[in-house]
Amino acid sequence: MIEELLQDARERMLKSVDATRNEFGSVRTGRASTALLDRIMVDYYGASTPLKQLASVGAPEARMLTVQPFDKSSIKAIEKAIMESDVGLTPNNDGNMIRLSIPELTEERRRQLVKVVRTIAEDGRIGIRNVRRDTMQDLRELRDAGEVGADDEHRAESELQKLTDEKIGELDTFLKHKEEEILEV
Q: Which residues of the chain does CATH 1.10.132.20 include?
């Protein structure tokens, strides 16, 4: 019973780390990456739709992204969504395709992006801690119901804390690498 709870917590924490790592990919670092546009949602006929479902995104050059809409009528909505997003890129629309040139990052913009990445990392840490809290609650309920002893509960809690520390350490490592990548000139 305890092992099942710990395994579930391990899987949920791993998902939290993966989700945070994917979100790190959507923060630009001075080079073109199609992941920069992953978080952009477009108002498409009244529905908020991910950009990836409306267009193909490519990186033909190191400092250029292209957005080719599947439906030409959606190009204005896509352009508007990119303008309103926090990626800091200005779309260039030729009627068929949107080009996004990626400028060199200024020192000020780099510092802003580091703050964004730290916020994303903190959200990931909160997710991991929430998993720990939920699992601790389940362990207490098992103890109160008499299904496990206090010693077993205590051992499981210390193992859960080790797991939490390990996953937060992984997140901090990813954060450190992403900060270095952003601050690299």
A: 2-25+106-183
Both structure tokens of 37:
């546009």
Q: Does domain 2-25+106-183 have CATH number 1.10.132.20?
A: yes
152: part of which helix (H) or strand (E)?
helix 150-183
Token pair listed for 1:
């019973």
Whether the pLDDT of residue 68 is over 80: the answer is yes
Q: Is 58 exposed, middle or buried (0-12, 13-18, 19+ CB in 10 A)?
A: middle
Whether 19 contacts 124, CB under 8 Å: yes
> Strand, coil or helix: what is 68?
strand
Over the stretch 69-81, which tens digit does the pLDDT of each residue have?
A: 999 889 999 999 9
- Name the residue among 172, 73, 167 with its Cα closest to residue 117: 172
